[in-house]
Amino acid sequence: MHKATCHCCILHRPHLVIPHSASKGKQAGTITLMKTVKLLLLALLGAGLLAASLVEAIVAGVDFGGEFFKVALVKPGTPFEIVTNVHSKRKTETIVAFDGDERLYGADAATVGVRRPQTAYQQIRRLLGTKLENPQVKALLEEEHFPYNLLQNVTRGGTVSLKHRDGHIYQAEELVAMVFTHARQITDTFAEAAVKDWVVTVPAFFSQAQRQALLDAAEISGVRVLSLINENTAAALQLAVHASYDPEDKPRRILFYNMGSTSLQVSIAEFSSQVVPDGFKKNKTISTFQTISNAWDESLGGARFDLRLAEHLATEFSEKIGEDVRKVPRPMAKIRAQAKKTKMVLSANEEIPVVMQSLYNDIDFFTSMTRSKLEELSADLFERTLKPVEVALEKAGLTVADIDEIELVGGGVRMPKIQQQLAEFFDGKDLGVHLNGDEAMALGAAFRAANLSNSFRVRQVGMTDIASYPVGVRLVDLSSTENKDNDNNNDEVDSKQWMKRASLFSESHRLGLRKSVSFAHSSDIACTFRYDKPSMLPAGVSVQIGKFNITGVEEFTARMADKKLGEPKVTLSFELDSNGIAQIAKAEATLEEEVEVEVVVKKEAKKSKKFKKDDSTDSSEAEDTDEKEAEEEPVTETVKEMQTKTHRQKLTVVRAHDTHAPEEGMSVLPMSESIKKESMRMLKEMEKADNKRKANLEAKNSLETFIYKAHDALSAQESEIKKVTVPEQVESLQTKLEETEEWLYEDGDKADAAEYKKKMSDLDSDLSAILSRVSELKELPIAINTAQEYAFSTRELMTEWSKSKPQVTDDERGDVLEKIDELEAWLTESEAEQKAAPKHESPVMTSADVAKKVQSVKKFVIILSKRPKPEPVKTDKNGTKKDGSKAEEETSSKESDSDKDEIDVETEAPIVSETEDAADEAVDKEKPADKKDEL
């Protein structure tokens, strides 16, 4: 795995420089000191900013699937990691459930979904950016029998909302935002820091409305999306990270076959190498790929095969009981869960028994299922598995022989029948499993996030993605749009009406590029984005993408009317951004005017000569007095000429409708800013309530655990406890424990965290006092004995030091012995008081007190033990001792000489007090003690 490298500035520690030259003076020293302080402050500030940037540097990629989501994390200096959830799993169910006032996610929500399916919302990604009549939405209710109460949002063009059984209505984006919030929480916990920047995968067939709805859901959840990325593109990027190709070889064409839970997607990409600049006069070779075609079956995923099996089991059980079990949510939820498990087992086994006890009305269900039976039930589905492959090849203009590799992605490809069909279709070519089919898309999204972030340096990979649908634009006068007939799905308009059409982006158009359209016009404009080929769209997707009003043209025309310059030129720049969303990037109106202006032009220059300067000229100005030819003197004149002046007006672009009722052919509306603000407020309140509930539960569980452990401790150490208590103390504590336990399951069941913590603190105070006295029965005698042994050995050590350590004075050794005397006196006195004190009361002395007293003596002894021995007296080559006074005279002489050059530099000397903290520092700085001095 490639490691991400963070761009981190290296902060060097500045050195303090004080000059010793008298000629520099105090001013130089002061300036240098000021510069040094400034550097230190900048270094500290930089270090703080660096620390902050490292926190912001963490990014993530999420493969947001219809059934599961996976998150890959990128932290500076560490490999890419797959985030594990609260159950230590690498993938999490895309479900949110409501259990009373509590929201549940992942496996917990899935469990609730079996018991109470009407409170657990699955497959919620399908509800984004679409209408109730979408076949994918209708299938949830009619074919998959989910007991959801789906509504139509009449103010946003018919978007889907969901009515919970408590009467609360949630928009689809809000439900998805709840799952995003859970993904953010488990990722933050895993990263041990807040992760704000994300890249999110989407199916290639997602419309603009669906993509925008996913972005809105992420925004209101607090997740900042750097970019969306198509699922197969993310998998291709993960493959390219580790790929290596020869630049001289022809590109390798790889087909990605991705069957997930809800859809089948096929993409063909060309992989090659490219030589790019790498610094000054250097080049390097990087891997690069470009997607050349996409195809899909948006309703053919692994869940569709699960449904066939569930329908078969439901039919068999219904015939057994004489009642249609599909109409009963709970047993149908159990059948769906069992069908999924059965299909997974049949991928590796030919046959499996199916057992569901008390499925309905205490009736057990026993049957068996074979792989051949599943293939028979799903025969029409298997016939659809190769159609997207054929379409992808046709779009790319390729044949089977042109494909070099096939990569399998997604959980649905584990079915043996699908692999068999692919192998036959590609004439026996190996089906590649170079990628982890479950995690490749999350890892590719994370790599994309690291590339988009400014905080990482990762391996450079060239990536080109393409649009999924061709997009065009229709322009009409804004005033004419009052006629609703112009907004419908028909392209028929009044022949007298001004209108322009343009095809902007083909289905293979590269994402992130712009295209401009220019025309002469004097009125405000209504701009409608549309899909150019409705036949390519999945069922239920509106042809219209969005409608925008472009204003400011009429105002600009009126303002410039006096100049009689004609109609303004309107230029519209359109962009299909990296999210796959078409938008107006820039709108401008211009008029050109020919104006007469005065300009300064140069004429032919004249030459002049300079002669010898007069004798009276100042000597400093008379250095060059020889005759010489001067440079050309510029001569200018003012003339009039015609120039083109461009008048520019930035135009205003706004969405045509903040609200509108559902209408045939019109796209649904994204969340407005006011709606997003209200949704964020609601979600924050719910998250705050969840956090409070979680804190209460944790405090309650802690109190409950403490009570159990307290009972165990009183029972396990009963004999020792009797030695340090009176019966009333134990009885009082046991009574408190029992009363608290009773309160916990009755009145205290809904208490808040603060009350739980207070009760536990009160109980802990009583229990800890007893257990501490029990512990001291054993620990205190040991501590006293250790202290006495230390005192004895230290006395012997001082005797030895009188001979071996002349650097330690008699007074200092006397100080040590005095401290030992004080220690022994304190031990004798305190031990006597302790023996006289009642055992059930707080002890006079503890083992910790003894250790602290001993440590204070030890520190003093260690400082003395590390004092170096005096250096031996040096002698000259004749063996004669150097005269100490002479050396002192020489030193004094040198010092007096240096007084002449000394500068007055004020410095602050560190003040060291005779405290234990100073002793600690001295211990660290002095050289190590001899081993024989260690105790």
From TrEMBL:
Organism classification: Eukaryota, Sar, Stramenopiles, Oomycota, Peronosporomycetes
MF annotations from Gene Ontology: ATP binding; ATP-dependent protein folding chaperone
Entries under SUPFAM superfamilies matching the protein: Actin-like ATPase domain (SSF53067), Heat shock protein 70kD (HSP70), C-terminal subdomain (SSF100934)
Bias kind Basic and acidic residues: ranges: 832-842, 868-897, 922-935
Any GO BP annotation: endoplasmic reticulum unfolded protein response
Gene3D superfamilies: 1.20.1270.10, 3.30.30.30, 3.30.420.40, Actin, Chain A, domain 4, Substrate Binding Domain Of DNAk, Chain A, domain 1
Keywords for the protein's UniProt record, in alphabetical order: ATP-binding, Chaperone, Endoplasmic reticulum, Nucleotide-binding
GO cellular component, one term: endoplasmic reticulum chaperone complex
Annotated PANTHER family: HSC70CB, ISOFORM G-RELATED (PTHR45639), HYPOXIA UP-REGULATED PROTEIN 1 (PTHR45639:SF3)
The protein's name: Uncharacterized protein
Chain intervals with Acidic residues compositional bias: 617-635, 898-907
Top-level taxon of origin: Eukaryota
